[in-house]
Design goal:
Blueprint: H1 7-11, E1 27-28, H2 40-49, H3 62-72, E2 79-82, H4 85-96, E3 103-106, H5 112-119, E4 124-127, E5 146-150, H6 162-170, E6 177-180, E7 201-206, E8 219-223, H7 225-238, H8 245-256, H9 258-281, E9 284-286, E10 293-298, H10 303-312, E11 315-316, E12 329-332, H11 336-353
Parallel strand pairs: 1-11, 3-4, 3-5, 5-6, 6-7
Antiparallel strand pairs: 2-8, 7-8, 9-10, 10-12
Helix pairs in contact: 2-8, 3-8, 4-5, 4-7, 9-11
The chain binds pyridoxal-5'-phosphate.
The site of pyridoxal-5'-phosphate (PLP) has 13 residues, from helix 4.
Length: 354
């Protein structure tokens, strides 16, 4: 840090991304990416777009926004695109929180909510999960805060039903409720249809997980036209060209090929069920996941030791140092081959230690 950095920023703890090793020797099960490549249609759309990189991209993202609205059953003016859904979340903190309207989110959830709150100088409340790592919806009713909930939650994978989400939205008519649906395509229930009924709901989704596009950086916000207009004020005050040409093309190609995404998600769900069965046989326990990861622990081995021993065997998973979840590892669901390699490695590790 230089002596010129302002105090707020030097006090902040930035988000720590999962490791992205430069050598390709690891089986990467640490950042919830898809193991499958992007849709072939996306690849060919991008190839056609490269030669136009001398020109700025469309700041309104018109074609992709129209296609996305159609896919989601929304209107064009109810959708905004972001450079990853992280950017949409940042817009939401910027637009809907201040010294009067604070933020609230679970104490165990996506780490970025806290970072954005700190970056924006917003006070926040962390609402404890239950002992079983569940969100207790009554804790989120009748608040005076901007609420952020990942559904399914991360890193637990546990989902709330749309009916439960609706109870929260209904009881906070004068506050925004942001539902982050990064993992919704792996078994969750989307609350996008509720945007027609509630003007205080903002849904956030991403192309990074189910749509195999983490490297392209594309996310979206879905809400009432007025809310989307508010977020566009932030966008046009920071970076109007926030989505580059290649990513717009890849997004459009991916949407054209909806069946590909569906099939990839189905495979992940099958592989999750396979891995869960095998992990149980080895004595692991885990939360009920509706996402593309498994949050697992073993009574006889610490989370840190499992992480370390897997890394020695060139398998990367995500271990969080936070005391409440230090027993656990978050394991991304990969291909069947990757899951088999994981189980083989864990068997060896347990034989060595136990
Ligand atoms: C991965 C993730 C995001 C961010 O995804 P982007 O790559 O920025 O679109 C947002 N929320 C949750 C809960 C996530 O796990």
């Amino acid at each position: 840090m230089s002596r010129f950095l302002k105090a707020d920023l030097s006090a902040l703890e930035p988000y720590t991304p999962g490791e992205q090793p430069k050598d390709w020797v690891y089986i990467k099960l640490n950042t919830n990416e898809m193991p499958y490549p992007p849709s072939p249609t996306a690849v060919s759309y991008v190839a056609n777009e490269v030669s136009r990189l001398n020109l700025y991209p469309d700041p309104t993202c018109h074609d992709l926004t129209v296609a996305l609205a159609k896919t989601l059953g929304a209107e064009e003016n109810q959708v905004i695109l972001g450079n990853g859904s992280d950017e949409i979340l940042f817009y939401a903190f910027t637009a809907f929180c201040d010294s009067k309207t604070k933020a609230a989110f679970p104490n165990i959830t996506y780490g970025f909510y806290k970072v954005f709150a700190q970056l924006c100088g917003i006070k926040y409340t962390e609402i404890p999960l239950t002992e079983n790592f569940e969100i207790s919806i009554n804790d989120y009713k009748n608040t005076d805060k901007t609420i952020f909930i990942a559904n399914p939650n991360a890193p637990t994978g546990i989902a709330l039903s749309t009916a439960q989400i609706e109870e929260i939205i209904k009881s906070n008519p004068d506050n925004i409720v942001v539902i982050d649906e990064a993992y919704v395509d792996f078994g969750g229930e989307s609350c996008v249809p509720l945007i027609k009924k509630y003007d205080n709901l903002l849904v956030v989704q991403t192309f990074s997980k189910s749509r195999s596009m983490a490297g392209a950086r594309l996310g979206m916000g879905i809400g009432s036209a007025e809310l989307i207009n508010d977020l566009n004020r932030v966008k046009y005050s920071t970076n109007p060209y926030n989505i580059n040409r290649m990513t717009l093309a890849a997004g459009l190609g991916t949407l054209t090929d909806g069946l590909y995404t569906e099939e990839c998600c189905e495979k992940i769900i099958e592989n999750r069920e396979f891995a869960e069965k095998e992990l149980s046989k080895l004595g692991f326990t885990f939360t009920k996941s509706s996402a593309n990861f498994i949050f697992a622990k073993h009574e006889l081995v610490t989370g840190a030791e499992i992480y370390r021993k897997l890394k020695e065997r060139k398998i990367l998973v995500r271990h969080f140092n936070s005391p409440l979840i230090t027993d656990y590892n978050r394991i991304t669901v990969g291909t069947r081959e990757q899951m088999t390699a994981l189980i083989t490695a864990l068997k060896e590790i347990l034989e060595e230690i136990v």
